[in-house]
Design brief:
alpha/beta, 5-stranded parallel β-sheet, 21 strands, binds cytidine-5'-triphosphate
């Protein structure tokens, strides 16, 4: 995993090189980003030697001439941990201030996992403004690693001490994701289906496959073997535990999904399957029919999700998606019952950043007992984590 370690100017920065060492030892790649004040406590040479990578500290001296570092770091990192995190960086994050390398990177990184290990004097930690900022950051999904009580460098004793590097690693849930899905095989469907009209035309939809691929990657990161059945997409999967089957039509997806489901512990069907297909596919390019227009006869495709619902055995889980325009919750709940699902993930149509093609999504996850939870607008990778945490 690619981990970015952010360091700010607190005396606890003397422990950060040990954190970097532990992360490397556990097999992670590490890049460091430090504030000017942090470099009063640790040297660039220490950080670069231990991380094995160039330090990023100066916003205006990009090491890579082709891109701005705070964006390329954002793309590179799977998670970012700030240890120690001073009251200052916490305040900047909560107020949307980006005036150096680390604070701008944190702004760009908001849709990926961020962990903060606050470290400061007890009175500073208990200051209402700091507590308000912490509460706000927690509310937008930033992981706060609670500071410990104990002797502080300033000679006093109380809350505010940075957890030991081993504890920081333990609390970085992304490093040892729960639930542990090792030994489980999970089916995921993704992308659109194409229903052929003739040799050059088809009926399709705008699904990009991003949500399904994010699910497959996240499931594999949790240790699962993933059977990914996908419609046409330019996306690639990266994890070796993902076994990919490419299909084109709903009927091909049906055949692959029904073949894999009996050997799987769970299935998550995120594909946007065409409900209908032309009743006849011409094997040549159809000619224009002139002013009289043209009529295509459509016949219904099999419902893959409903079929898996009839095949479901004790101990198997089935999770579907729903796209609704009115009575969203009630219609999704009906779909869940009708198709014998354990959970249904309702896609939001109300948010600009949610839905087809984009990298973000906001969903409501509805359980069979009617309980539901709505996520904020998050990256599809983090929505995948939410779905895994709630449903598996
Ligand atoms: N689905 C499926 N096979 C189909 C149609 C849909 O497996 N032929 C799955 C989708 O992958 C999704 C869920 O069913 O998980 C719901 O899809 P949606 O389009 O919201 O609903 P439909 O069942 O098609 O119902 P309607 O169009 O009437 O809302």
């Amino acid at each position: 995993m690619n981990i970015i370690v952010g360091i700010t100017g607190g005396i606890a920065a003397y422990k950060t090189p040990i954190l970097i060492r532990l992360l490397r030892k556990a097999g992670h790649e590490v890049k460091c980003v430090a504030t000017d004040h942090a470099l009063e406590f640790v040297t660039p040479l220490t950080l670069e030697t231990l991380s094995g990578n160039k330090l990023y500290a100066d916003l205006f001296a990009p090491a890579n001439e082709n891109s701005t570092e705070h964006i390329s770091f954002k793309d590179w990192g799977d998670a970012l941990v700030v240890a120690p995190a001073t009251a200052n960086i916490i305040g900047k994050m909560a107020s949307g201030i980006g005036d150096d390398a680390l604070s701008t990177l944190l702004m760009a990184f908001m849709r990926k996992p961020i962990y903060l290990a606050p470290a400061m004097n007890t009175q500073m930690w208990e200051c209402p403004a700091v507590q308000r900022n912490i509460e706000y950051l927690q509310g937008i999904g930033i992981h706060i690693l609670q500071p410990e009580c104990g002797e502080l460098a300033c000679g006093t004793s109380g809350a505010g001490r940075m957890p030991e590097p081993e504890q920081i690693m333990e609390q970085m849930t992304i490093l040892s994701p729960t639930p542990d899905l090792r030994g489980q095989r999970i089916l995921v469907t993704a992308g659109p289906t194409y229903e052929r009209i003739d040799s050059v035309r088809f009926i399709g939809n705008y699904s990009s496959g991003k949500m399904g691929f994010a699910l497959a990657e996240a499931l594999a990161a949790h240790g699962a073997e993933v059977e990914l059945v996908t419609g046409p997409t330019s996306l690639r999967c990266h994890h070796p535990n993902i076994h990919r089957t490419d299909i084109e039509s709903a009927r091909e997806m049906f055949a692959a999904a029904t073949q894999h489901y009996p050997t799987c512990q769970a299935a998550i069907l995120s594909a946007a399957v065409a409900d209908y297909r032309p009743d006849h596919t011409a094997d040549h390019k159809l000619k224009k029919q002139g002013d009289s227009g043209m009529t295509l006869n459509l016949v219904q495709n099999p419902d893959i999700l409903a079929t898996l619902g009839t095949m479901k055995q004790d101990g198997q889980k089935l999770i579907g998606f729903a796209l609704e325009t009115d009575n969203e919750l009630a219609n999704a709940q009906k779909k869940l019952e009708k198709k014998n699902l354990d959970y249904i993930v309702l896609n939001s149509l109300r948010d600009q950043g949610a839905g087809f093609g984009v990298d973000t999504n906001r969903v409501t996850i509805i359980a069979r007992n009617g309980n539901s939870t709505t996520t904020p607008l998050l990256s599809k990778a983090r929505v995948a984590e939410e779905i895994i945490n709630h449903c598996l």
